[in-house]
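Chapter review: from sequence to fold.
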Amino acid sequence: MLRGTALPLVAVASCAPVVQVAGAAFPGWMLCALVGALLALAARQALATLGLEPHLRPLALVYLCLGLAFSFATWLLFFVPR
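The token string follows.
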């Protein structure tokens, strides 16, 4: 049974945007995570080509943060009402 504080959380949790991709419904966060990962891979290629990658340490943390930043930016661009 839901108590007093859990009920508003359940009501808000159902407000996530749903995106239609090839006829299937996907949650918006899944699309943002995919776009963030792909843009982080593209950024890795660009940084390696420019010769800047050896100056970035620790690499796992740098690319994780890049992927998260791209994911959040995608969310802000496409799913936050203006």
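Two observations follow directly from the output. The longest strand covers residues 18-21. The chain is about 60% helix and 10% strand.
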